[in-house]
Amino acid sequence: MADAIVAEGLTKRYGSVVALDGLDLAVPEGTVMGLLGPNGAGKTTSVRVFTTLLEPDSGTARVAGLDVRSDAVELRRRIGLSGQYAAVDEYLTGFENLDMVGRLYHLGRTASRDRARELLEVFDLVEAADRMVKGYSGGMRRRLDLAASLVARPSVLFLDEPTTGLDPRSRMGMWDVIAELVAGGTTLLLTTQYLEEADRLADRIAVIDHGRVIALGTADQLKDQVGGERLELTVRQASDLALARSALAGVAISEITVDGHQLTVPVSGGASVLVEAIRLLDAEAVKVRDVGLRRPTLDDVFLALTGHAASSSEVSR
Q: Which of 11, 267, 301, 303 is the most buried (most CB within 10 A)?
């Protein structure tokens, strides 16, 4: 499988600030790459380089087989971009916005209008098609912006925090639309501040910090790096803590931690270890309020790799 996006040794400075510091990345065709990182890690700078909006200081980048420097004009015809903020004209209708984008791509009058109507239907905006965008909700504007990025049927799509500011219901709706696009063969590079978004949509995830990729893999691979499974147990009575800790020592693979009435037990073995733990606790008559098996989340991965948890208020540079 060929790579749709390739970066080798990309660097970019803003004065004394290093935004990209030798970034290497490869995204195979027809896959989704999630780009995660703390505030200022270089996520948005990477997208700007890949979409020809910003020239790197050094290094190379190719998208859809084209060099971002020497083939910039042709490359812009083949890619789509939806940024952190909806780039739509609020004094035009939804239909007029999409039709205008088609004209800018030189699709022609008939083709532009047909494509606009098609996308309005895909993004559930038909009823609002003839209303000025200034009356749209935030979720409607985001959907229209994403529709605009697809007018020219790009083979590679860049989404820079596409669901920022949306309520949970609108965000999940956008996830469904994005998943359908990828199922159709589109290559997608997605930056996001919502870790569950990357977990759901991305085939692979690159964690970047200080302008470099510091971890790369599937969500499961990254989660495995931070310690595997944990058994979380809450006892009804504090007096049972010592007994529970002793009973579960046999299934723990490292130190058991205690916080209030809760014990966290590092384990391996999946559901079978949960069954064994319950049997051991029952044998000692430990009164349990709640017990469950938990895998690390991407938030755990983020914390382990970057030193702090992801924040929903973060905006990447």
A: 301
